[in-house]
Amino acid sequence: ANLPNGSGSGALVKGCSVPDPSASLLLLSPYATGRPHRGVVGASRYAQRLRQDLINAAEDPNNRTLMIRGEPGLGKDNLAALVHFGSNQRRKLLVRLDATDLKTKADVLLDAIGENTLLVSSVDQLDPEQQQRLAAMANGEHPGFSGRVIFTSESCVPSLDAISQVIRVPPLRVRRSDLGDWLRYQLRLQSPGLGWVKPPALPEAVVRRLQNHDFADNLRELEGLVNRALRQARRQNHDLPPAVLVEEMFWTEQRKERARFDLWRWKPQLRGWMRAPKLWDGLLFGLVSWLFVVVNLVLWLGPQDRAANPMLNLFWAWWWPLILLSYPLVGRLWCAICPFMVWGQIAQRLTPWRKKSWPHGDMDRWGAPALAAGFAVILLWEEVWNLENTAWLSSCLLLLITAGAVVGSLLFEKRFWCRYLCPVGGMNGLFAKLSILELRAESGTCSGSCSSYACFKGGAADGEGLETNGCPLGSHPAHLSDNRNCVLCMSCVQACPNRSPQLRLRPPAADLQPNMHTPSSERGLILVLAGGICLHHWQRLLGWLPLAPSSLHEGPLLARLSFAALALALPAAIGLWLNRRWLYAGLPLLWALLLARHLPIGMAEAGTVLPAGWPQWSADPHVIGFCQTMVVGIGWVGAVILSRRLLDLNRRAWVMGSMVLLLVSLSGRWLVAL
Fold this sequence. Notes:
This protein is mostly helical. Helix content is 52%, strand content 5%. The protein contains 28 helices and 8 strands. α12 (277-301) crosses α16 and α27 runs antiparallel to α28. The radius of gyration is 33 Å and the shape is elongated.
């Protein structure tokens, strides 16, 4: 007789302890699970432990009940298949039932299992009565069942955990070191489906960026990520297999950030005004470029001391304090109007030859030491040769940095120099993480609506998107995890036809999070900047030594250079032993001490830039001292808050760390005092 549900033929009487084998086979066949489609990938301790737990479960001679627990998307059913097909029950069926199956056909299906292995998926979604029945089955109390039971669950089920051998599957975010292996495995797995014999290579820089992503849906999300990247690369490469999958092919959903205020949603007309090409072209090529020429001519041909040369006063009394004040407000905006790179862009446009693409790979590996060393040389040059009071040497410094920008622009496309080698750009990118402003794109809009990558690569006008050369720093606004590589130049906003980029206000230092990416260049740069404060006030630290020169500006050059280098290296002697997160926690304090170091010259001399006879302004030393104290106090508060966020400290350790930061703040305040 045919069964009423049409699932097979033969007789299966409810309550019968020995069902018809052929009828049972036909009934269970739609629920049978095939062989596993992958093993456990990776070499981390988590992967090794999981692999060993599965082997132990498969080799268990008693075939004890197994509970596989983990977050969604981890392939727990596949792990159950690994255990079953690695055990002595491999010739039996692996019958997978979920909550829906057990709610509608529990009596018929459970009676038909027999000697086969039962896999109950998402057992935590069943009601207690069904869980109790499954527990009885696992304990051998169900008539006619003599197989093994395997459960999978996303949460604890105490009644079943107590009778099971539990295997906990770690989420992908805690075994980030395995991510490269998983990505390359998926590339090998999915490339043949696109007709590619050889999968594209995956640079380590891409793996490191993706390691900052949490992968909420774990392996399922990773598979979709790789699939989307391969299809986008295929479309971009006209169906040909690319040699390398670049970073821009990988779209990750960003976490919903809290406490964000979209400025363009509040005032839509701001977006049209800020993306206008005439504004930026007029500012850069009509004003900044020629103002830079005037500044250097006055520095070369005018008086050489700061009191008589307005441009030298502009450089030291205006630029340094103002750029430090701008970091918490607008981040790296200075780089968008930087005169060094304006002339680099002019040289790039005037030369006919095609510029090279940026080399793939970890550019920070060699660019980071060069950047930090370049800044150290600049600081030594400033102090030993007294650039603050020597106009033509200050001009030489400006022209030297401009030469680097021009050479970089002649060799490579876009702003290779700014992103990897410019000392000022490195400092700007570091302190931009403190900014209350961010420009980000919605990755969902980008991955679902865009295939041109005009915001990143540049291209012709598309819809409301304008023709641009793409992001000058080679970044995609949907891939930014911090402000380091965003100069707020609005190129991506001009190019985007889908209004994906958003300009938002946020809490200060929102980029500094426990899971942030910390480039190797920034640790050295933090120590060099701290050394610059010690170098400027070297006499208070080292002036008591017997061989100390009376001044760094006069006397034997070797002695002056030796003491200058010693003062510059003092923070590095301590900081190299510190946890990197402590350095980032102290970033607000470093910013405050740098500002306090430049406030005296700014508040005392910035108002004297006009010629004699015009109104003059100079702050009283007591007012300057009060402002220095306030700034250092703000920096200490910021460092205390960040230490709580970045470091896994108990209350006592946090209080002790706060006291150490207070001691550093008081020492710094003493050091920069008038």
